[in-house]
Amino acid sequence: MLASLHLSEAEKRKIPDQLGKVIEYFKQIDGLKNSVTSELIHPVSCRNDLREDEVQRSLTRMDILKNAPVKTPEFFLVPQVIDKKRKIDE
Description:
Low-confidence stretches: none
Structural class: mainly alpha
Largest sheet: none
């Protein structure tokens, strides 16, 4: 509904011609041979420096929960965001 366009009859008559011109323009661009294009893919040389994966000790539940503002000994407590009375598929 938000994308609906309300066009006058004169505007509707112009659309096929205007779209045809756009398509022709893209065909012209598609036909160009440009040797610079591949150089512009990465104008600045870059390299990913990645470290090797290392097996490390996982965090304990106590470590994870120690900075939580509201918690129980087993999990985070957060405000309720879903109405319990409401069905999920509504």
